[in-house]
Amino acid sequence: YGKNTIKFLRLKREGKKHFVKEVEVCTHLRLTSAHEYLDGNNAAVIPTDTIKNIVLVLAKKNGIQTIEQFAIDICKYFMTTFCQVAYVKTYIQEVPWQRLQENGIPHIHSFICVPEGIRFCEAEQCKNGPLVVFAGIKDLKLMKTTQSGFEGFHKSECTTLPERNDRILCGELFCKWSYGECKDFDFDCVWYMNKVRECVIEAFTGPPDCGVYSPSYQKTVNSIQMLILSRVSQVQVIEVMLNNTFYNVLDMKNLGLTNDKEVLIPVEAPYGSCTCTLGRKKFLEA
Questions:
Q1: For the residues 89-99, what does the mean pLDDT come to?
Q2: Which CATH architecture is the domain 137-285 placed in?
Q3: Residues that constitute the known binding site for urate
Q4: What is the C-alpha to C-alpha distance for residues 120 and 144, in angstroms, rounded to an integer?
């Protein structure tokens, strides 16, 4: 049990310069006994309102250096403060605020919310066990208007889909990876310096002057995973899900026009989905 959707903005001031972290936190606990479920005895139950207040107090006292570190702080607090807690899991997602710039000069206290994917993380720990951290990005929408196809697929009496060697590739991406057990980890370094998000975009789009051909959504998902694993040594296992949007060319013959893939209509539902989990062999064997 626990508390979902704890939303707040943490403002940090360093002189005239301000920093913001707006987050949504979900924290859940499992206790060492189940008396509250079986007997109606609430003696060991930490109220969900208390859980919410603990999250807010930790934000006030510790600040939010990174959402991963804040998730670790929350897990450690519950594990070290309450002997009846057997397991704690915290999920945090961050509102994508970016500092505004004018002529390349960062503004000291103004920000813009950009829809370039939402950063999130999870931390979980069992009593006497290691603290494990996951991170990821979701709601990242990508599109390329050519160099995508789907041919040579299995056909049956129910197949109506035509083969295509030139189509729009468009999807909403969810990407989650595991760091394994974390000790003195610089999460922002992985996020900003190793640029996992940029790896996703590079694998999806290819070089800016020529692109890269995608024979299937599955191949694109695998290319994203392989590029991240090759460049970011801290990532152990990575899950990628691509919910794809299809576009149909609008027939404009009745309007006396030839439509050469210039006006297309999105297919709202149903949409396709592709999911794959890939990890380093030594980590999976362990």
A1: 95
A2: Roll (3.10)
A3: 48-49, 150, 167, 218, 244
A4: 25
